[in-house]
Amino acid sequence: xxxxxxxxxxxxxxxxxxxxxxxxxxxxxxxxxxxxxxxxxxxxxxxxxxxxxxxxxxxxxxxxxxxxxxxxxxxxxxxxxxxxxxxxxxxxxxxxxxxxxxxxxxxxxxxxxxxxxxxxxxxxxxxxxxxxxxxxxxxxxxxxxxxxxxxxxxxxxxxxxxxxxxxxxxxxxxxxxxxxxxxxxxxxxxxxxxxxxxxxxxxxxxxxxxxxxxxxxxxxxxxxxxxxxxxxxxxxxxxxxxxxxxxxxxxxxxxxxxxxxxxxxxxxxxxxxxxxxxxxxxxxxxxxxxxxxxxxxxxxxxxxxxxxxxxxxxxxxxxxxxxxxxxxxxxxxxxxxxxxxxxxxxxxxxxxxxxxx
Length: 357
Fold this sequence. Notes:
The chain has helices at residues 2-6, 34-42, 65-69, 134-140, 160-167, 169-175, 182-207, 228-234, 236-247, 265-270, 284-291, 310-324, 342-356; strands spanning 11-17, 20-28, 56-59, 87-89, 95-99, 104-106, 150-155, 211-215, 252-256, 275-276, 296-300, 330-333. By secondary structure, it is of the alpha/beta class. The strands form three sheets. A seven-stranded parallel sheet has the order 3-7-8-9-10-11-12. It has a three-stranded antiparallel sheet with strand order 4-5-6. Helix 7 runs parallel beside helix 9 and helix 12 (310-324) packs across helix 13.
């Protein structure tokens, strides 16, 4: 069986990989491109082979101020974490500070830029995207982005996170349940969705973006930040609008939401999210059983010994495909401490080609 597909897995080139401008990942001789294969799955069909997150090109252009101040520029000229970064104002003028030990940026709490959400217009100005040099950024990244793969473009600060950056965490949690502040939150999210719709349009027009990777953490290591009812009332309608902003342009919506969020899984599905990569503190099997038929989830490929034999790797791949091969609606991943074993990914290719044929 493996000989049947071996030529398809042969390396025929490379793609650039992430922050390291010198790092590459293999380009394989697949029967259809990684982009075509991903679209089969995301459009509700069965792919020819099991895709993984590495089959998309991650992109966070320096053009967007948030990406610079948060040390998250991934493009032709990347800005790796640990570079000489001091933070600065994001596109709404909120000051971020770079924290070297975490290799990321945060807003120092205690002096919120928006002290009264009902009067947010008095404190912030929405960016004018027409003043940004989209043409130059598109030209600079034309060789980094490829038609063979979906461009997965990042929005680092979503709805909940954007509001927290402007109001501080505890003030936002109160505003979600305070009847006097709820109208201001709804009005702000409504205006923010209009802005994000315009941003998504620019991403699609200038970079041919295929997936919007939307950062919006909703949980902590112990559980969600708010109740399912609050999520449904305050966030789901606006996430759904952003999903629609993507879908009407032929794009897909990926939610990046850290925390132990199984209690909020129904809200994520109800919002129409296409992809969710849950943090490792979640019970993946529980999430798969709850919403795996509605949302494409990343799933760990299982643990291997430190120096696994070929037989052990093959057995792990067979178990994974046997479990999820009926629909192919999972994305295999390793862990934060260890990426998926390359040989295991090879076996997943061969086995999934047979299973999906």
